[in-house]
């Protein structure tokens, strides 16, 4: 039995070949992509860190968040902060998974030492490979080891007892779909707990107190209220590098949310209005991981050497 396929041949002949509307060469395509990359992108997302970075140096902001350039290194101070946060997060994840989520009274006050030993060994390797860099002249790793140990000891002695019997709600959680004046706010909540029907949000600081900490507190406070729907919420900063009272707690009213929303809108407008991102040279250029790409920063560093440890420097940029 034969099969009539004439209908298929007619259908194939009737198909129209769609020619491209615009034909470009690979070189033209690359040039067009380069133009798109260089065009200022409208800001639709911000974070407390992005804002602080922009205020300290618009050029750094461009490298980090516009072009997403590769870092040439990570300053040791920033890595120290990351290690402390990571070790504390591991503790609370273990409590959440093995202690039914309720923070117990820890009998071992040196619980962090094995984790810190491993992290320090890895940090030493990163320094040897040039991935992490010690900036201050004639400085060794030991002071930074002592700094990490001191921060974790302070956390254990002064912060952890305040959290006993708290129920863990989240560890290193995002802010959810939190917007201020149509700008989505990003960030990370170090720890969220619940006690007595109240919500508590905790944030660990390994550096000095800074004026912009209050703005971060407002962002995280209102984001937590929106995400967890708890009317009684407290946001607390713990300054682990300090020897006295390390706690700063915040609550805010709706009128302060309106003020914050206006502030965020103004910052986004300032960024969106830029045609070019101008560098703000300072001693912080020595800690900038994008400095090989910044002529102005290199020129400044050539005549302004890196400070010694005795010089107090706010290293908030990018940390």
The separation of the N and C termini measures 79 Å
Quickly give the CATH architecture of the domain at 74-272.
Answer: Alpha-Beta Complex
Uncertain stretches: none
The name CATH uses for the topology of the domain at 74-272 is Lambda Exonuclease, Chain A
Please tally the helical runs, counting DSSP H or I stretches of 4 or more residues. Answer: 10
Major beta sheet, specifics? 5 strands, mixed
Structural class: alpha/beta
| SSE ordering | HHEHHEHHEHEEEEEHEEHH
Q: Tell me the β content.
A: 15-25%
Question: Can you give a write-up of this model?
Answer:
This protein has 319 residues and is an alpha/beta fold. The protein has a domain at 74-272: Lambda Exonuclease, Chain A (Alpha-Beta Complex). It is 44% helix and 15% strand. It has ten helices and ten strands. Strands 4-7-8-9-10 form a five-stranded mixed beta sheet, with helices on both faces. The chain is globular and about 60 Å long. The N and C termini lie far apart (79 Å).
Task: Give the SSE layout.
Blueprint: H1 6-14, H2 26-38, E1 45-47, H3 48-56, H4 58-66, E2 74-75, H5 76-98, H6 113-128, E3 132-133, H7 142-159, E4 167-174, E5 179-180, E6 183-186, E7 188-195, E8 198-205, H8 213-228, E9 233-239, E10 247-250, H9 254-272, H10 295-303
Parallel strand pairs: 1-6, 2-3, 8-9
Antiparallel strand pairs: 4-7, 5-6, 7-8, 9-10
Helix pairs in contact: 3-4, 5-6, 5-7
Characteristics of this structure?
10 helices; Lambda Exonuclease, Chain A; 319 residues; alpha/beta; globular
Short structural description:
The chain is an alpha/beta fold and 319 residues long.
């Amino acid at each position: 039995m034969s099969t009539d396929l004439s209908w298929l041949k007619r259908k194939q002949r009737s198909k129209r070949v769609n020619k491209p509307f615009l034909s470009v060469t690979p070189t033209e395509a690359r040039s067009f992509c380069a133009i798109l990359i260089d065009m200022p992108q409208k800001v639709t997302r911000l974070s407390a860190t992005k804002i602080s970075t922009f205020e300290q140096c618009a050029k750094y902001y461009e490298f980090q968040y516009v072009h997403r350039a590769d870092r040439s290194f990570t300053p040791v101070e920033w890595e120290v902060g990351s290690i402390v946060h990571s070790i504390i997060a591991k503790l609370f994840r273990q409590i959440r998974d093995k202690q039914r989520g309720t923070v117990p009274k820890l009998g071992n006050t040196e619980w962090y030492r094995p984790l810190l030993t491993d992290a320090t060994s890895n940090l030493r390797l990163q320094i040897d490979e040039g991935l992490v860099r010690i900036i201050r002249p004639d400085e060794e790793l030991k002071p930074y080891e002592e700094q990490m140990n001191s921060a974790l000891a302070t956390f254990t002695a002064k912060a952890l007892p305040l959290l006993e019997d708290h129920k863990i709600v989240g560890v290193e959680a995002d802010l959810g779909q939190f917007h201020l004046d149509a700008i989505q706010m990003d960030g990370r909540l170090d720890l969220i707990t619940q006690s007595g029907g109240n919500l508590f949000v905790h944030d660990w600081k390994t550096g000095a107190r800074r004026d912009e900490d209050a703005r971060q507190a407002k962002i995280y406070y209102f984001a937590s209220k929106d995400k967890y729907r708890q009317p009684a919420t407290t946001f607390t900063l713990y300054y682990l590098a300090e020897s006295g009272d390390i706690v700063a707690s915040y609550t805010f009213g709706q009128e302060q949310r309106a003020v914050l929303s206006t502030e965020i809108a103004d910052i986004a407008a300032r960024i969106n209005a830029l045609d070019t991102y101008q560098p703000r040279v300072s001693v912080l250029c020595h800690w900038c991981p994008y400095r090989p790409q910044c002529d102005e920063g290199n020129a400044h560093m050539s005549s302004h050497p890196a400070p010694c440890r005795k010089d107090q420097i706010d290293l908030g940029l990018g940390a």
